[in-house]
Amino acid sequence: MNIGQAASASGVSAKMIRYYESIGLIPKTVRTESGYRVYSDHDVHTLRFIRRSRDLGFSVEQIADLVSLWQDRERASKDVKAIALDHVGMLERKIRELQEMASTLKHLARNCHGDARPHCPIIEELANDDAAAPPVKPDAKFGALGKAAAR
């Protein structure tokens, strides 16, 4: 099947399929004489595996490890479990960070009159150079905007 058919069958866009191939997450596919990519049912199955992994928020690096373990019939399930539990820890940290951000914004919104006057504690806090906000860390999945920008 061609890339469009593989995209439809797997739920992964053609652009992402090309990207996954370029970074080695999936092997380079066979091409026709005219240069079109040809995908097998096995390739589509792998793309579905990747899509489900991405849906659960695994990073590309983690997915590469999971694909490798999935294809290794001699794998130890403890290796898969370790990746999953590491990811759960990261998700729980992200949840705490998002809850803290929501709490801060709720507090600021409660203290904003929301009227026609220009005074606004939300704007004042955002403009406060002395605020103790943690630095934004680049995230593998969401880039330099940080983890919270994704949702």
Helix/sheet category: mainly alpha
**Average residue pLDDT:** 88
Number of domains: 2
Taking the sheet with the most strands, its summary is:
2 strands, antiparallel
The low-confidence parts are: 138-151
| Radius of gyration, taken over Cα atoms and rounded to an integer in Å | 22 Å
Biggest β-sheet: strands ordered side by side in the sheet: 1-2
The helix/strand order is HHEEHHHH
Strand content: under 5%
| Helicity, as a percent range | 55-70%
- Distance separating the two termini: 34 Å
Pfam family, one: MerR
GO cellular component, one term: cytoplasm
Subcellular location: Cytoplasm
Protein name: Cu(I)-responsive transcriptional regulator
Describe the protein.
With 151 residues, this protein is mainly alpha-helical. It has two domains: 55 residues, Multidrug-efflux Transporter Regulator, Chain: A, Domain 2, CATH 1.10.1660.10; 74 residues. 56% of the residues lie in helices and 3% in strands. It has six helices and two strands; from the N terminus they run H-H-E-E-H-H-H-H. The protein has a two-stranded antiparallel sheet. A hairpin with a 5-residue loop joins strand 1 and strand 2. The chain is elongated, with a radius of gyration of 22 Å.
